[in-house]
Design goal:
alpha+beta; 4 helices; 25% helix
């Protein structure tokens, strides 16, 4: 199964960001497909194929690793785009502690490195408008309207700063592609592991 380790923002942080995005959703029109706020998360590590029988071992390994990391205060801040396709919101606060946690081998051999903590809130829609093709030789290429929309959203959200919350646990989540709302992934929390707790021996 596809699994990932993640930090879930507090309800206040999600509500605050959701309200802030209201101002840019209408302007984006059909260009962007917005994610479900109930599934927003900060991915720390990802395993594309974890055997079902390895889940319990993953919890034991995660508890061992997280015992060396204490709680941290984070907030959502700023925005950017990955590969011209995904709109993300950044993270502020105890980012050095977060970076140290992300450098850990959280999912054993299945772990894939994450380089930047972020929360993906939207992706380019299949219905996004396309740039108009050149009609005449030598005519300048028209700007991509979707790229313009993304740039406008990033500019509007670049000064965003949400409320802080204390991170006390990391969740292990399964992800089933295409099984969620509007054909998106369906995330199911398999369990959580506290930060700074002594692993069972």
């Amino acid at each position: 199964m596809r699994v990932f380790c993640s930090i879930r923002p507090s309800a206040d942080a999600v509500e605050h960001l959701d309200a802030a995005l209201d101002a840019v959703r209408d302007r984006a029109g059909r260009a962007l497909h917005w994610g479900d706020p109930d599934q927003w998360h900060l991915t720390l590590a990802f395993a594309p194929q974890l055997p079902g029988g390895a889940v319990e071992d993953s919890f034991d390994h995660l508890a061992q690793v997280l015992s060396g990391h204490g709680p941290m205060d984070l907030h959502l801040a700023g925005a950017g785009v990955f590969s011209g396709r995904a709109l993300w919101i950044g993270v502020g606060g105890d980012v050095d502690d977060l970076a140290a946690l992300m450098r850990e081998d959280l999912l054993g051999d299945q772990d894939r490195e994450r380089r930047r903590a972020h929360l993906t809130v939207a992706r380019v829609s299949a219905r996004a408008p396309r740039p108009r093709r050149r009609r005449y030789r030598g005519e300048p290429a028209q700007p991509d309207p979707t790229e313009l929309v993304l740039a406008e959203v990033v500019r509007a959200m670049s000064v965003y700063r949400g409320p802080a919350w204390e991170v006390r646990e990391v969740e292990l989540v399964s992800s089933r592609l295409g099984a969620g709302r509007s054909g998106g992934p369906l995330h199911e929390v398999l369990g959580s592991v506290p930060l700074g707790a002594n692993p069972r021996g």
